[in-house]
Amino acid sequence: MYRPDPHPPEVLEQLRHRGPQTRIAVVGASNDPAKYGNIIVRNLAAKGYTVLPVNPRETEIAGLPVFPNLEAVPAPIHIVNVVTPPEVSRGILEEASRLGLPAVWLQDGSYDETVLEVARRAPFKTVYEACIMVASNFA
Predict the structure, then answer these.
(1) 23 beta partners
(2) How many Å from the N-terminal Cα to the C-terminal Cα in the chain?
(3) Between the CA of residue 9 and those of 12, 23, 38, 47, 135, what are the distances in Å?
(4) ∠ CA(115), CA(92), CA(34), 5° rounding?
(5) Mind listing the pLDDT tens digit for each residue in 72-109?
(6) Which of 32, 92, 99, 101 has its CA at 20 to 30 Å from residue 71's CA atom?
(7) pLDDT value at residue 111
(8) How far apart are CA 19 and CA 91, in angstroms?
(9) Which residues are CB-contacts of 74 (< 8 A; sequence separation ≥ 6)?
(10) For the purposes of burial, counting CB atoms within 10 Å of the CB of 10, is it exposed (0-12), middle (13-18) or buried (19 or more)?
(11) pTM
(12) Predicted local distance difference test score (pLDDT) of residue 91
């Protein structure tokens, strides 16, 4: 089965633009400090990125306003970081496609073969088999 490059250079280059001009939506953001949806929000914000938490059940995470879905996030969004179970991730990918977003970063645990198949058909670049927190250390 064809598997695209899990580390598209265009997305990694966007991550290298450290600072508030790089806007990263974290879908599955959480107020639980033990969950990756919270750890990633805090990590990326501390590195200077503009972090846009997305969670339909929260209003604030780590002092940042939360959006109920990607459509509610003010443009632009450069990278959508997904920290949800695969059954939720499929809908997120469909929303990102519909909105014409350029890149989706699938954290470990957020995808399975079905999610990767949706990603293969999508118009955006997809990163998987990599953690955005680790990759941003080298950006």
Answers:
(1) 50
(2) 31
(3) 5, 17, 26, 20, 12
(4) 90
(5) 999 999 999 999 999 999 999 999 999 999 999 999 99
(6) 32
(7) 97
(8) 29
(9) none
(10) exposed
(11) 0.95
(12) 97
d(CA 23, CA 57): 21
Phi-psi domain of 62 (left: phi exceeds 0; alpha: psi -120 through 50; beta: other): left
The answer to whether 51 and 43 have CB atoms below 8 angstroms apart is: no
* pLDDT of 68 strictly over 80: yes
CB 85 within 8 Å of CB 109:
yes
Q: Is the pLDDT of residue 1 over 70?
A: no
Q: Which residue has the tokens 């590195």?
A: 47
- Rounded CA gap, 114 and 91, in Å? 12
Q: Which two tokens stand for residue 37?
A: 């949806």
CA–CA distance, 48 with 57 (Å, rounded to integer): 25
Instruction: Please give, one letter per residue, the 3-state secondary structure of the chain.
Output: CCCCCCCCHHHHHHHHCCCCCCEEEEECCCCCCCCHHHHHHHHHHHCCCEEEEECCCCCEECCEECECCHHHCCCCCCEEEECCCHHHHHHHHHHHHHHCCCEEEECCCCCCHHHHHHHHHCCCEEECCCCHHHHHHCC
